[in-house]
TrEMBL record:
Keywords, alphabetical: Cell outer membrane, Membrane, Signal
Principal location: membrane
Domain RagB/SusD, chain residue ranges per copy: 268-557
Protein name as annotated: Putative outer membrane starch-binding protein
Compartments it resides in: Cell outer membrane
Amino acid sequence: MNKYFKQFLIVIAAGIAISSCHKIEVKPNSLYTEDVFPKTDAEFQSVMGTIYTSLRGHYSLGYWFAQELSSDESILPVYGGNWFDGQGYIQLHRHNWNKDHGWITTVWNDANSIAGLCNQTMYIFKNAPEGDSKNTAIAELKTLRAFAYWELLDMFGNVPLDTVYPSPGVQAKATRAQVFTFVESELKAALPYLKTATGSSTYGKVTKWMAYALLAKLYLNAEVYAGTPKYNEAIAACDAIIASGNFAVEGRSTYLNQFAPTNGPSFKEFIFAIPYDPSTSNGYLFHGRYDLNRNLGIKYRYSGSTPGSYSFNQIIMNQTTGNGLVNARPSGPRATLSSFYNAYFVSDANDIRNNQWLVGLQYWPDGSPLMVSTTKKGYNQFYTGSDGATAMTYHLYIDSVFSTRQDAASLDMGNDEIAWNMGIRNIKFAPDPNSSSRNQSNDAPLFRYSDILLMKAEAILRGGTATNGQTALSLVNSVRSNRTTSPAWTTVTLEDLYAERAREFTWECWRRNDMIRFGKFENAYGFKTNTDTYRRIFPIPTSAMNTNPKLVQNPGY
């Protein structure tokens, strides 16, 4: 990268923390004259790299927690005070978050910052030489900004539309319908100029197909967002992707490979994925750290774990060295509820998607029992016998049921082996055996072709017009035939489709969105009893309200 583009990136990176609701008066340094503006596609891409980096850091932490922990799909309880973290995780589960919630504030700031970065970069690009490269780059920026505003639309409802750089000042909130229209118009304006190529040349970057996928998602939720159904428009956006012939549903044997550390542009379902690399400082895909049971680090080679030269048949608590042993232990606080698992993953033993879960007795790859060595007190902190320090060994069992053994109010399960082994674990994004850190190289697919087919099926079931000889049933079966060897369905209802989406997109940040659209978000599940409908959107963070006096808090908060 030449020195001019390093200067470009310094200017853009400086804006990463600037929310779009902030007053921005600083203009780019006049040092950047026409002769140093990007001219080639590669040069435009190098300047936009900071925006993609911001998206990567945002998606797998704050966004994941807000979307998934507020649904029935995932829970992160407390273990003897560990992971209490100001009640942030359990508030998301119980639906009693407030306007000072840390992860909600993070999501707000991240999405606004991405939108602001897009504004700044478009400002820099405006004096670049005219041509196809410039047109495509600006269309890409418009799509990324539309995605940021779609997030805000989906999660916060009415939000300020700050689309000019330098900003004229703080903005009042636009209505949710106005934000919907803005996102729609930006995507439509971008479509003619976006790249159509797929594969390694555009992997991890915006393409025409990513924009169509976002349009489909926007239209499918139009009744929630703007009060007017747009199911035929959703079908048309899906049809554009289907007609391209660029994508296909992965077969049963390769379904889980899509989420492995070795995934990437070779997977034909990926429409848009966020690449992760454990060597980068913000490659925060930590699924192994959060999801893997603490005693399974060696089996799944978490963070470089290895049994070394041991003939290994048991995990010895806290033993981390000796004879080449490396026993990095995952934190392991995150799991799913038995109600979610039982509803969607026990009825069809032939479904490959069942293999993303760890539950029940655990075994080494050779089939021998995975034994854990501890003490009686270490196994059960409430053990009252005088021999609590006596060694004991047990066969690792992941219990599907949570029990607040230490404190029900704080969802505290306790701090012993029984507690840490509660909760069915998800290993869809399998731990990276080649990473010596807790970062992983699994790329995260944001839009997959199976989602396009199931969105079209849903739009038809909700009243849209079937096209191209495809029915809701044929579309759902085209996905299921690549997931299970069980017979094809003969009928399909919206409830069936809702269940199929749960099976297909677990851990991919779509559950909250689906629950709201299907009217399930207020249901009781796990330790959640709150039925407040206003929690379908999150509060405006206090910090944003303090910065922008024109903001009005969302109802209920």
